[in-house]
Amino acid sequence: MKIQELEHILRAAGSISGCRDMVVLGSQAILASFPDAPESLLVSMEADVYPLNDPGKADLIDGSIGELSPFHSTFGYYAHGVGPDTAILPKNWRARAVKLETPGTGGCVGWCLSPTDLAVGKLLAGRDKDFAFVGTMIRCGLVEVSEVGLLAGELSTEDAELLRGRLSRCR
């Protein structure tokens, strides 16, 4: 996915939901910080989003511009309407969220996970593709292992231990 495609999804999600502020949780959140991120980080055709102030409208977004929708068929990418509990994130992720507001977002704002918070969420999800994603982020200098590790202090004891163990797989 390219930055223009994420902007289009934000614009469409805002129009459908009537909400201005959208949270972007998934891998495509990297585009707000690194619009020219390595291609291997941009292969997903979906953006995981939900309205910040009305997360219940994520189902409306998913049904309207989600997978296998006319939007998906037309453009080749789509929104995956998710909720705030979709990802395990550090307590203060919102304070670090990267604001994506451009002419292309049409008055909507994407609150995208910071690269470090994105890495934490990916590592706690623990799928092979997530380890590969975080490994690429580290090798390309988009995140520092030490910064990701520091965010363990914002997690439950169990999640912090899991994060530390999984982070060692990406070095």
Rg over CA atoms: 15 Å
Tell me the helix content. Answer: 40-55%
Helix-strand sequence: HEHEHHEHEEHHHH
Number of strands: 5
Strand content: 5-15%
Major β-sheet annotation: 5 strands, mixed
Distance between the termini: 26 Å
What is the averaged pLDDT score? Answer: 97
Unreliable segments of 5+ consecutive residues? none
Question: What is the approximate shape?
Answer: globular
Structural class of the helices, strands and pairings?
Answer: alpha/beta
Number of helices: 9
The number of distinct structural domains comes to: 2
Question: How is the topology of this model organized?
Answer:
Blueprint: H1 3-17, E1 21-24, H2 30-33, E2 46-51, H3 58-65, H4 70-75, E3 78-81, H5 93-96, E4 98-100, E5 109-112, H6 115-125, H7 128-139, H8 145-150, H9 157-167
Parallel strand pairs: 1-5, 2-3
Antiparallel strand pairs: 1-2, 4-5
Helix pairs in contact: 1-3, 6-7
Structure keywords:
12% strand; globular; alpha/beta; 5-stranded mixed β-sheet; 9 helices; 171 residues
